[in-house]
């Protein structure tokens, strides 16, 4: 019956244009290419069919969309909020955390977690971000004049930052044995996920569990989960409810404000929610693991492409430095949280970088009802891949789309833009819960780096060769040179 149903789905989808297909395997054979070729294939299709095309491979049928109107239909409501089976690869790690869960469970969790990203909490997290930015600047002082692959360095910054804010664990300072192996296991797991992603035959759990890759992943997961459990356990034993004051804000049901000097971790807020019966032990683990993943790799990738773009766009870099000079003058004081809203041009540059290189370049849902997209009827049960990368590079939405032009994001230039034309953090109810955190993290570290160093180009935008992966990656290092900034005014 499943077979017939799926065939019916494929028959309905066939009315939508798409690449030539073959009996039963559909387009399944075409996509068995290298990750670089797979990414290129996606772009080739996006250029050929404007706004929508279908692909299918038994038992799946999918539409690929990159029209803002269609994207709005899919992501703006809870109707199609269920993630597609592609996300299954992350399930052994993140279980039913916020990224993967659905229905009532997702709704309840989102409600508990939203206040942890309230400005007052982010202010406390900021202290950690600022300290880590300065540590990174110190590290860079040993590399001056040499090409530096920025991704590992900035991943360390974002991973340390999320560990310290989400778990309250000082990874860089108390380099305890388990914290170190945890960090290593996260890197390994990332590689295993990519390896599995491009090997469709390993999507079957049965085959995967018997494979060498499956066994390696199991080992890494044991390390990761053991560490998460230990951190939660330790934090719980030292948890002092007195330190959290509950206040009612106009629009927040539970806003926790910290009173004493010790920093609050997101974990404290979850433990507190557990005491109120809002989440259980497993739930806390799922969320901590989810935030560790979503909260570090994406931002590190975003920062890597951004630094490359700034190194290659002296004009934009100089303008940011002028803005920083206006804010700081001759003072060497650290960047404070109050300075961030003044960095308006830097923010335009970050937005433009996330347009050209959106770290999460595609997202995917399962359509729960039949919908009409670009005048085609798409049956319920189809997968719907939303290509943020292709959307952001549409010439009709962004003139000279391949040009790095931060002015596009000046308020006057955003007037009239379709609200779903630019969605690096997705949109609608399942958008990125950490977007303010991410922008804060990016602003803080880039401002701190640019106050100290000039960025010089090594990797050029034309050298970039993107790999099809869960997050956007270059097929090779992203190199930038750092030189001490001597002249303050540009
Ligand atoms: C530049 C950095 C980031 C980008 C581009 C980004 C992008 C996204 C996107 C596109 C989604 C939607 C995913 C989907 O529909 O499948 C998402 C969801 C999510 N992001 Fe981010 N993200 C970033 C940083 C962060 C950070 C720093 C955190 C945590 C501190 C975070 C936590 C999450 C979580 C938990 C979800 C799932 C939300 C839900 O389904 O309710 N992200 N992110």
TrEMBL record:
Tell me which species this is from. Answer: Loxostege sticticalis (Beet webworm moth)
Q: What does this protein do?
A: May be involved in the metabolism of insect hormones and in the breakdown of synthetic insecticides.
The alphabetized UniProt keywords are: Endoplasmic reticulum, Heme, Iron, Membrane, Metal-binding, Microsome, Monooxygenase, Oxidoreductase, Signal
Stated membrane topology is: Peripheral membrane protein
Where is this gene product found? Endoplasmic reticulum membrane; Microsome membrane
Which family does the entry's similarity section mention?
Belongs to the cytochrome P450 family.
Question: Short name of one Pfam family for this protein?
Answer: p450
Required cofactor(s): heme
Chief localization = endoplasmic reticulum
Establish whether keyword ATP-binding is in the entry.
no
Q: Which PROSITE patterns match?
A: CYTOCHROME_P450 (PS00086)
The superkingdom listed in its UniProt entry is: Eukaryota
List the lineage, top down: Eukaryota, Metazoa, Ecdysozoa, Arthropoda, Hexapoda
Name this protein carries in UniProt: Cytochrome P450
Q: Which SUPFAM superfamilies match?
A: Cytochrome P450 (SSF48264)
């Amino acid at each position: 019956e499943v077979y017939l149903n799926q065939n019916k789905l494929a028959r309905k989808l066939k009315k939508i244009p798409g690449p030539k297909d073959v009996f039963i395997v559909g387009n399944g054979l075409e996509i068995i290419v290298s990750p670089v070729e797979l990414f290129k294939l996606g772009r080739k299709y996006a250029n050929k069919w404007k706004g929508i095309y279908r692909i299918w491979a038994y038992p799946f049928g999918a539409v690929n969309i990159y029209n803002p109107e269609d994207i709005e239909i899919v992501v703006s409501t809870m109707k199609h909020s269920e993630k597609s089976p592609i996300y299954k690869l992350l399930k052994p790690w993140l279980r039913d955390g916020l990224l993967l869960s659905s229905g009532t469970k997702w709704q309840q969790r989102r409600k508990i977690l939203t206040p942890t990203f309230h400005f007052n909490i982010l202010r406390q997290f900021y202290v950690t971000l600022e300290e880590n930015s300065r540590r990174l600047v110190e590290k860079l002082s040993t590399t001056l004049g040499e090409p530096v692959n920025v991704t590992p360095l900035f991943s360390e910054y974002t991973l340390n930052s999320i560990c310290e804010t989400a778990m309250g664990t000082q990874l860089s300072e108390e380099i305890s044995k388990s914290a170190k192996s945890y960090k290593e296991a996260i890197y390994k797991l990332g590689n295993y996920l990519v390896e599995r992603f491009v090997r469709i035959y390993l999507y079957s759990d049965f085959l995967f569990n018997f494979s060498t890759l499956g066994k390696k992943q199991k080992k890494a997961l044991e390390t990761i989960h053991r560490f998460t459990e230990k951190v939660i356990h330790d934090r719980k034993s030292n948890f002092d409810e007195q330190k959290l004051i509950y206040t009612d804000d106009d629009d927040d049901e539970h806003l926790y404000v910290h009173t004493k000097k010790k920093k609050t971790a997101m974990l404290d807020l979850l433990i507190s929610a557990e005491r109120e019966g809002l989440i259980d032990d497993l739930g806390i683990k799922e969320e901590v693991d989810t935030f560790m993943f979503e909260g570090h790799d994406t931002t590190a990738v975003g920062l890597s492409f951004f630094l490359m773009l700034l190194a290659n766009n002296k004009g934009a870099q100089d303008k940011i430095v002028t803005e920083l000079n206006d804010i700081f003058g001759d003072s060497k004081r650290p960047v404070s949280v109050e300075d961030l809203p003044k960095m308006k041009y830097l923010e335009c540059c970050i937005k433009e970088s996330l347009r050209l290189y959106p770290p999460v370049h595609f997202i995917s849902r399962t359509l729960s009802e039949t919908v009409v997209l670009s005048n085609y009827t798409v049956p319920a049960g189809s997968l719907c891949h939303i290509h943020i990368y292709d959307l952001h590079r549409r010439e009709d939405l962004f003139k000279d789309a391949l040009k790095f032009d931060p002015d596009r994001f000046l308020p006057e230039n955003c007037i009239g833009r379709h609200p779903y034309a630019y969605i690096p953090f997705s949109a609608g109810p399942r958008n990125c819960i950490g977007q303010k955190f991410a922008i804060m993290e990016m602003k803080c570290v880039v401002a701190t780096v640019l106050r100290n160093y000039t960025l010089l180009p090594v990797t050029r935008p034309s050298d970039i060769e993107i790999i099809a992966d869960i997050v956007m990656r270059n097929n090779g290092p992203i190199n930038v040179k750092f030189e001490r900034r001597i002249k303050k005014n540009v």
